[in-house]
Amino acid sequence: MLLFLSVLFSCTSNNHAENHVFEVKNISRDTIFAIENYAAYRSNIYLKITGNINDTAFVYGIKIPPGSVNVSGNYDYYDEDSIVIPYSSYRATKGDLKIQYK
Question: What is the pTM of this model?
């Protein structure tokens, strides 16, 4: 039982993990956000994308529809020591987006 509890507590999420936020300031321009020395050996990344855009865009390969944006979830992540979050404007030309990751 003690072994089970120690494994359970070691696998729970860390509520003290840092949140980082990128702002897409020019919606009509493709952008790459890169962070070196990101916590290594993860298998997923939590992203929360909020804002408002006038047409379709992509963040980290995730299709973002036009209008008010509030998308979040855990996505696959395989790099060891850095993270790259690409933003593709696709058809979007106006608006604002914030990309929070943890």
Answer: 0.77
